[in-house]
Give the backbone structure.
Amino acid sequence: MRWPMGLRSLRRRNYRLYFFGQLVSLIGSWMQTTAQQWLVYKLTGSELSLGVVTFASFIPVLLLSLGMGVIVDRVERRRLLIITQTLFMITAATLAVLTLTGVIEYWHIILLALLTGVGNALDMPARQTFNIDLVERDDVLNAIALNSSVFNGARIIGPAIGGMVVAAVGEGPAFGLNAISFLAVIGALLMMRLPPFTPPERSGSGLHELRQGLAYLVSNRTVLGLVSMVAAFNLIGFPYVVLLPVFAAEVLGTGAAGLGELLAAQGVGALVGALGLAFLGDRQAKGPMILANRAMLPVGILLLGLSKTTAITMIGLALAGYAQINQLAMTNTLIQLSVPDELRGRVVSTYTWALGGFWPLGSLLTGWMGERMGSAEAVLALAGISAVIALTGWAIFPEVRHID
């Protein structure tokens, strides 16, 4: 099959396997996300509890991700991904069994979220750097954009299916389907034909190599500016999604199926953004594009906070999803293309640390704000602070503005 230029990474067999394996697995993961959020809110009735689960899922990323970058530079990435995907399959299956047998409690969900977070601390830098093993350097932006389209296509399909499954038969079957879905990506990884892996020569202890990566980050103002803004938006901005179950249950009154629709709306916006990058990203100046999407994000969040109708809420979520994925995909690409090969795992781990590590802190803060202020008021506050962050990044990192 002759793939068009916008899908050119799919011309490579290894990337095709990864693409379609990820698609199946991610649909299952988004089904689980929807079911788990609904189950947590049903068990606790608390906005803060939703933030605590997300906090538990990602706090290991904050604590461990930087060190995992050293491992990613030393060990074959495919092997690391098989390990992490197997761990995710086991935790999903455990959650399914506990729910189906009727013994599930809130602390079970927290414990399994922590175990998943440990896997994510390794999976995130390994997965982000794996693209460079699958495509040529000139196709990295295209591969990352297509990965984002897979993630967000699954975000459309998975929550919609998850919401229907929960409404029809409960949360347990959704967790079980997710466990099965990991077989697709594990099988795809095993089927790839990759050149033999040659471990790089060590330049010192793991701590010394970690310091090398951090020194590069601090010395490169462009990379520092990109990573800093990802951390800031993950602390204040992106975690607005933590409160979506409350909007579905109390503001809109649409229930579990409605929560799936809200998550899907965000996914539609993100998918449009990712496909736009895949087909047109190489033709546009990347610095101004990042800044424009940072400015668009608060607008989408503002619409969510002000809306009392499903239609306006979904428009706001679509705008926010579009802005978020464009910023992240472009940031990821620019970092990967700017760093030396021997430092890639360590420097990309600072990006995944900012992406996944600050997310739990932001989720906990957002849940606390929702509990204290009300969900709509908390989202409005996030919109205002996000606008300030966008302006601050524009002012103190002029290097990003001028990226071609």
User: Anything to note?
Assistant: The radius of gyration is 20 Å. Residues 5-191+206-401 form a domain with the Growth Hormone; Chain: A; fold (CATH 1.20.1250.20). The chain is about 80% helix and 0% strand.
